């Protein structure tokens, strides 16, 4: 009898999870149940599976609303009906079509109208819903004649008074009003709760015809969905035979190009893979991926193929990836095996500047009716909960900020805050809004609206109404089309090198950047700032600890820094064994045979599969369960737990001791966290080397490209520092030299106008465009005539020194700008045939401090350019030891003076600790550790220079300064405010620092893990 149930997928309306809704139905003896969320089908697939598990017949549909106004309820008679409903709402979401007040002529959909919106005539599949409180209206003749077309309408939205209050809070959040401003039309009735089945039938006892009509409707509806068959586009050609024929031809052509004609191992691997790909029916998936990459190549774009698909030699031969599986001994079964039901993952990266072109090609090539992005459900998070719920209860912004930023134990204890906390905590994990998956695209065989309605986010590409997990569950495999700034940096650097030096660098030739002496030296010393994936403090420290000087070690480093490996203690053990290969024994010969290249340490996902199969004797099917447990689709201990009993039973049959088996399984289990497959690490390593090659041989062009692509791990200032250390002369923005982005002129680096805070982007872009059209600006007056910028913008450009080509002082230019603009009229910007000479004024000479420019730069750019931060210190002391000398100071106490670059927040059992990254006056980087007891007495006080006292700990070639005391050192007073003491130190607060957070505890030490270094039987 429940034709109209809402879950919390009715965003900011429903209060019941799908599980809660179904459990309530089960408790009330409900034999069939309809899920009709508002304008969405997000939950229908999970709902259908969960209902069948408990013996309830699932019915699915949608409640169609225009704002607060309920139009009608739709129920799918079969799977085709879902498509009809989804196409109706898709037209509204994506094309702006107004939802009709009455349903269109559906063929496989039953429509139920509220009494307030009944059409003059009802079609055969249309009914009128009658709520219990409306029954007394049926005695009237105008309604009595429709009894044969009436059904029970008993909506379910809440489960009691508490949830109804929560529902009202959600409605207020949705309406963006305080709770008291809601009207009765904004929220549901209090009786929209699940009742025992018999009670509902009894309530309508006076109208048995409604009961039988409702039963008839529910009997007509069925949702028999086939979850087991693939829903992706099946074939690239018109058949499986055509696909494998084309794939085989492409693979062998690529084989010849990659390996020549006489490489027998490569040919045998290609033959083996093609056979399995064909048997599993994945040829079309490979060809669609190849087609996307082929288009990218035709456009001259650079891409990186990653994911488990990078284990494939066929993918390598097709040019999807640049990873040779033979070179790295990549494990075929990690990529494909006959137990696998889904295609391998191909994660393909493009530059953030080019990704939209690729996306447009995919939508155009495969049809907008068959392509859409995966959606995601954005849940209410701690901060959004307290801001949103606090607003509903009328709290002012200052109190909202305090609630959102502080833990609950620090909140005010007044009654209103307690209400905010009460209802806020109920909203944890509730979906708040739908958004676009970062990269996952679905390409379907049938029109995609057969499965889901589509929505159109601001980005401009349609999204489905479910997430990647549901997509996979119903038979879709997404194509991951990603963007990253690292590739943009490489692309732009190559273009800049060609433009500035006339050198064409073939960066796709991985031979130039895999085993190059200077690059290896930089790598081993951790000189990798700006380089993709290997520039963070943790990664640079790891490279130094490993003395990483080759590609193979870098591949391993890319994986062992991942949380799954690091948190299990494997990273620490790998570092030890890499540095002391003669100080350990393999604790079983299987580890030596299959993990010899990683010293018997499980580093990659496929290492776990190898050990599970070759040591534990598990089947390939169980190995695939392990693979999925460690992949992005199922990272959890629960999937591993299912094979645990099999593992120990098998180990016992093979004669392994219980001690050894338990230790091996402990290591396997730790990989239920995040870890990479080897091919994925190898893809990252290739791109890291490409970045490093450009940094080593073309440092200025590379750093300019890094700055223009938004940097990476650090703020812009750090990349500017790197450019200076590489020989660049750093200059503030200039209207005649800078572009919107940073420009390199010889060794002169002109910072881009985009870095100026407070300037309108449109005008900033106009400056270099106007200069290109009509030549350089001759004077400030010429600039004012040609660029429609107000006095505030012109002043900003003057303060940063953008008119220094005029040879005039800033204060003189400021006076001139005011005189020019005070009576300036827009028509004076018309092009002039004869340009009048600029008017000159005789102005008094004003004294100006050398450091005023530096403080202008801090205010407008966030960092000084004309001098170093160290030059602004009141003290001349620069420390007793420089960063370069720390490696020789093990266990020594030293004093250092340094500029703060970044710090990382890490929780521990004793409190919060930080790891800091700094530069000294010579520009060298070093790292610090700050423990909780020290931080209590000597906390960080924002960006700037600090005096540090600590003890040096050299850990495998990498020094860290453990801090005992530190103090932030004062800069000189701001000379621009000599007559305003209150303002002399305000600008100092704008010196920045990078702060990153983690919720993971520090990596465990070797003694905390107790990993055995001897044979265990």
TrEMBL record:
GO terms for biological process: DNA replication. Pfam families: DNA_pol3_alpha, DNA_pol3_finger, HHH_6, PHP. It catalyses: DNA(n) + a 2'-deoxyribonucleoside 5'-triphosphate = DNA(n+1) + diphosphate. The keyword S-adenosyl-L-methionine does not apply. It is an enzyme of class 2 (transferase). It comes from the Bacteria. SUPFAM superfamilies: PHP domain-like (SSF89550). The keyword Transferase applies. CDD domains: PHP_PolIIIA. InterPro entries: DNA_pol3_alpha_NTPase_dom (IPR011708), DNA_pol3_finger (IPR040982), DnaE2/DnaE/PolC (IPR004805), DNAPol_HHH (IPR029460), PHP_dom (IPR004013), Pol/His_phosphatase_N (IPR003141), Pol/histidinol_Pase-like (IPR016195). Transmembrane segments: none annotated. Keywords: DNA replication, DNA-directed DNA polymerase, Nucleotidyltransferase, Transferase. Its EC number is 2.7.7.7. Residues 1-68 form the Polymerase/histidinol phosphatase N-terminal domain. Gene3D superfamilies: 1.10.150.870, Metal-dependent hydrolases (3.20.20.140). One of its GO terms (molecular function) is DNA-directed DNA polymerase activity. This is DNA-directed DNA polymerase. It comes from Sphingobacterium gobiense.
